[in-house]
Design a protein that fits this description.
The chain is an alpha+beta fold. It folds into 2 domains: 254 residues, Glutaredoxin; 38 residues, no CATH class. 37% of the residues lie in helices and 15% in strands. The protein is built from 12 helices and 11 strands. It has a 5-stranded mixed beta sheet. The N terminus is likely disordered.
């Protein structure tokens, strides 16, 4: 009788997520002191674990810009946040400075061991034929950011990583990547604005801003036709955000990309309740596909932190304003129960 009684709570408890078990067993590096730690809190609270690709990656900076904006809301909702990126302590320090993500929630995994344990996507399963000589790979890598690895043993793995990464950029083995690239240039009326009105982005002779307004291409200046429009993600606006991130990464490539052999490795997002049951899981499918709802990447958090999840940066958002207005109107005409 006593054994049966003891088994009842186990029978009624929500199943422990396999992803939770994998993360529970994993160890990552705390960049503040180099110690090994778990990506999960042991305090019996809900946990949001975000696995980034390389710290020097479009996806990483974009996702963390949103996470930084809602961190107070996560804390209020008793959700512990841990962000794990592929990189080292130096990269984590610079990434924290650039994105504003505090080091106390940022961890690094130099070899992407946790990503591989979870079976996360790493591009098409392509490899370099043995018949291709090292001299050819050396010449080709010399044209790419980071150049040729100092360690000869990394030559072929690094080239393979670039091969898979560039394939994903072309949409191969990466569903959703090409539409997302186009969305960055064409705009998205279902998404909120992405650049603050006073933001200025500089990339060599190109200066864009404030906001989406004036553009300078060396001696040439012009204003975008949509510069005065508000309330949605304007054409080229998200592409400008990505340009800003690209300038940051290319200028500090060796700091951000400490392990070029893991360049193709993608990430994932995992939200668990206090008992380790999965509330939400998403695995990246390619480059720039770090959410199942890219127009509003943190939509999955709306049940926990409210409407802030739909527009973390709190910039212009006509779509949500219309929805709120319609809801208010419906409430006014609805009969009193």
């Amino acid at each position: 009788m006593s054994l049966l009684f003891l088994s009842l709570p186990l029978a009624t408890a929500a199943p422990l997520s396999p992803s939770f078990q994998t993360l529970q067993a994993a160890r990552v590096i705390d960049p503040r002191d180099g110690s090994l730690t778990s990506p999960l809190s042991s305090r019996g609270r809900k946990a949001l674990v975000v696995l980034l690709p390389q710290l020097g990656e479009f996806d990483s900076a974009e996702m963390c810009e949103q996470l930084v904006a809602v961190r107070p809301d996560l804390q209020e909702a008793s959700i512990d946040l841990c962000v794990v990126g592929i990189g080292d302590a130096a990269g984590a320090g610079r990434f924290s400075e650039f994105t504003g993500l505090p080091l106390d929630v940022l961890r690094v995994d130099p070899d992407a061991a946790i990503h591989e344990a979870l079976g996360l996507h790493a591009g098409p399963e392509w490899s370099v034929p043995d018949a291709v000589p090292d001299s050819v790979l050396t010449a080709l890598l010399g044209t790419l950011p980071g150049g040729v690895p100092a360690d000869d043993a990394q030559l072929r793995p690094a080239f393979t990583a670039w091969l898979r990464y560039l394939a994903m950029c072309a949409g191969i083995g990466a569903p959703g990547t090409l539409p997302e690239i186009l969305r960055g240039y064409l705009g998205d009326r279902s998404a909120p604005e992405r650049l603050a009105p006073d933001a200025v982005v500089t990339a060599g002779p190109v200066v864009i801003g404030p906001g989406v307004g004036p553009v300078k291409l060396g001696p040439i200046s012009y204003a975008n036709g949509w510069a005065e429009e508000e309330g949605y993600q304007r054409p080229v606006e998200l592409a400008t955000v990505r340009l800003r991130n690209m300038v940051e990464v290319l200028g500090r490539w060796s700091t951000y990309v400490a392990n070029p052999t893991k360049l193709a490795q993608r990430g994932g997002t995992f939200l668990f309740d206090a008992d380790g049951a999965a509330l939400y899981e998403y695995r990246h499918r390619g480059v720039l596909t770090y959410s199942s709802t890219m127009s509003r990447p943190l939509t999955f958090l709306a049940p926990h932190i409210g409407h802030k999840a739909l527009n973390p940066l709190q910039l212009g958002d006509a779509a949500v304003a219309r929805q709120a207005s319609q809801s208010s109107a419906e409430a006014l005409v609805s009969p009193v129960p």
